[in-house]
Structures are given as C-alpha cells and as structure tokens.
Amino acid sequence: MKAYTSFAEIENDLKKLSLEKKIAEEELKIVKHNFEDCLKPVNWMKTVFTAISKYGILLIVKRIFK
User: Fold this and answer.
1) Residue 36: inside a domain, yes or no?
2) Are 28 and 22 in contact (CB under 8 A)?
3) What is the pTM of this model?
4) For labelling alongside 64, which of 19, 39, 48, 56 has CA 20 to 30 A away?
C-alpha cells in the first residue's frame, strides 16, 4: 500500500486511475464491436465462399494433373 504525503498525490493517482478506467472501457467497446462484426451473416458467407473457392481450385488442379 502506498503512503501518501499530500492531497495532490492522492488527486493525481485518482486522475490516473480514472483515465485508465476510461481507456479500459473504450478497449472493451472495440472488442465488443469486433465480436459483433464476426457474428454477422455477411462475414460467415465470406468465409464459406472463401473455403468453397479454395476447394474448387484444389479440384481443378487435381484434374489438370491427372
């Protein structure tokens, strides 16, 4: 535990903690937004189309080399 010698030190630490709290809240908002974006159907469809296209290219390459 820190021993304070003046009210100015206490106020500075309280301001610092308040700013750290605000930064953490903003970071949580960003994480929430990113998570919501991941759950959107558009992103799921993009992932599915990417997988299908990679599989299709693999099949084409197999047929070429047979």
Assistant:
1) yes
2) no
3) 0.59
4) 48
- Residue 34 resides in a domain: yes
Q: Residue 20 sits in which domain range?
A: 7-65
Q: Which residue in 51, 42, 58, 13 sits closest to 5, CA to CA? A: 13
The per-residue pLDDT for 59 is: 86
State how far the Cα of 61 lies from the Cα of 43, in Å rounded to an integer.
Answer: 27
State the DSSP code for 1: -
Mean pLDDT by 10 residues, the chain (66 residues): 93 97 97 89 83 88 83
Residue 1 belongs to a domain? no
Q: How many structural domains are present in the chain? A: 1
